[in-house]
Amino acid sequence: MSHSGDVMYVEPICQTVSVKATAARAFEVFTAGMQRWWLPTHSINPGKSPIARIVIEPKQGGRWYECGEDGSECDWGHVLVWEPPTRIVLAWQIDSQWQFNPALITEVEVRFQAQAAGLTKVILEHRQLERFGDAAANMRAALSSLGGWSGLLDRYATTLQP
Questions:
Q1: What is the rounded distance in angstroms from the CA atom of residue 127 to the CA atom of residue 106?
Q2: Measured torsion, CA atoms of residues 88, 93, 95, 101, in degrees rounded to the nearest 10
Q3: Is 2-159 assigned to CATH 3.30.530.20?
Q4: What's this model's pTM, rounded to 2 decimal places?
Q5: At 139, is the pLDDT very low, low, confident or very high (cuts 50, 70, 90)?
Q6: 154 by DSSP, 3-state: which?
């Protein structure tokens, strides 16, 4: 975290993982199969119904939300960029209290780069963390931890194992 005058800057979280899948398959499992690798404990549903599905509507402007087993829905954000199978940018609208906040937007960009031998390099960047204000440093630590993007991407890569 650094300050330039009155402007605070927080280093983005950058995580990379190689997966055994084509870019199209890696993109599909990341977007349409998120509930297969997302930690079930990472629900923000106020009613705390277990996660049944995680939905990313496949279009720019589409919703990103969780569906509880009881049929409830809880927004997480929305799709800013939809470019299958190479890139997606999501508006993360979950605040430092782990609640949906329509006034907050940080960005999660995921790029899928085809490599040799059926591998894809998946690069995730969660940026604009300074928008968390005074909670920015704590949120960066949480989001980059094993309970955050680091561990989630490991679970994602395992899901794509043959």
A1: 6
A2: 180
A3: yes
A4: 0.93
A5: very high
A6: helix
